Fold:
Amino acid sequence: MLSLADRLLCPPVALAPMAGITDLPFRSLVSRFGAGLVVSEMVASQEMVQAKPGVREKAELGLGVENTVVQLAGCDTHWIAEAARMVADRGARVIDINMGCPAKKVTSASGAGASGSALMRTPDHALRLIEAVVGAVDVPVTLKTRLGWDDDCLNAPEIARRAEAAGVQMITIHGRTRCQFYKGRADWAAIRAVKAAVRVPVLANGDIVDVPSARRALEQSSADGVMIGRGAQGRPWLLAQVAADLYGRPAPEVPQGAALADLVAGHYEAMLGFYGRDLGGRVARKHLGWYMDHAGTGADLRRRVLTAGPGEVLHLLPEAMQGSVCERQAA
Structure:
């Protein structure tokens, strides 16, 4: 059990922010199974404040929900502070600062203005952004970053120390550099240096896809908990499984067959309601694909599900999920 100011992080298993994936319907589903924290998709600060088309819609962040973190990105102290005030005033319980996104449109000056993991190359400026957010709100502020920009710039421990001094209350480290993107293997052991540098809780992130990998990540990093991203795609119960095995939480009832079809149908309908019928149907396809990967759905039926309209999708789901084994990911 960890604490963020007066808030408990129990269990210390968090859902990572993933663009286009960790929207409100998916976070709600993961939370229902059991997760210490769920983190919103990254929201660009200036666009959030200026209400550019689509941003406020994506920012239906579950504000006021106890275990929800709102993640902000930005390169300007004014805009990131204003965005922090806005989401805090609307009920955000925790605000996370993105210093880990490796996407070129985020890290280049022509995109979001050299934000995300590009801030690891300018630690003084990064600390000004952190100070601006901490100074703007009364809720806990956390930080998600990487080991460094590249192998010649592994400055996560230094940034973590300075972030802690500025008031950051938890730090998540993805065990890769920015220049690795998502290639190679996450270096969980390298997170140890960050853990040794600070007293605030540290979460390990990267390549945690089941209970055994979560256990190894904790052992190698000495971190206080884990953050899981891609491993939860198609398996919204994974965080609860990890929490049960590592921290003695109640084991989730993993759906199989008809129960899985009902869960997927509920998720699908929630996405249609959230985005609207047309956009929701398109956005949901990747989730349907991941569920069918898990279920072992045959190629022909898979194609029919992914090309069907909403009514037909719901009709096909019981058959598509029938082959699911849904074994618990226990070691």
The chain has a mean pLDDT of 89. The chain has 14 helices and eleven strands. Residues 41 and 84 are 15 Å apart (CA to CA).
